[in-house]
Amino acid sequence: MRTVYRVLAYLIALEVVVQAAALALAFAGLVHWVDGGGVLDSGVVEGDSDPFPEFIGLIVHGINGSIVVPVLALLLVVSSFFARVPRGIPWALAVLGFVVLQVMLGFSAADVPALGAVHGINALLLFTAALLTARRARVRRPAADDVAPATADTPV
């Protein structure tokens, strides 16, 4: 179960990278589309078709951020109860807290655009917390120097 805990934490960190890449793809595509004469207005946003090919980045960002990452975070918390990682439960709960805040910031940024900056900062905090959480679950193997050789005086 320790491996499941570690893999889930690393997957959350990887998803943060995917989120950044998807958003960068969408923004670069938007700039290219506008430079070519495209106009972004509410009709385009609410329309049924994708205005430019890189629009898929926004779709990936939305699905990952609102469904995939929260599910992974919940699974991490559940696995933390069985993984026997030192302080694993509080670390998993911290990751879940960052995810909840991230989702709230993502949905709120449409009303308060300045929260978009906080959304980006929180993504970095989530990435760091997920990596630290995964590293807590490493299996430490004692080095040869850590193990004292058995002698006749060694108590049984």
What keywords describe this structure?
71% helix
How would the blueprint of this fold be written?
Blueprint: H1 2-35, H2 42-46, H3 56-83, H4 88-108, H5 115-136
Helix pairs in contact: 1-3, 1-5, 3-4, 4-5
Strand pairing plus helix content: what structural class?
Answer: mainly alpha
Low-confidence runs of at least 5 consecutive residues: none
Q: What's the β-strand tally?
A: 0
Percent of residues in helices comes to: over 70%
Question: Count of helical segments?
Answer: 5
Order of helices and strands: HHHHH
Distance between the termini: 31 Å
Radius of gyration from the alpha-carbon trace, in angstroms? 22 Å
- Shape, per Cα inertia axes: elongated
Strand coverage percent: under 5%
- Our count of domains comes out at 1
The major pleated sheet works out as:
none
* Average of per-residue pLDDT values: 91
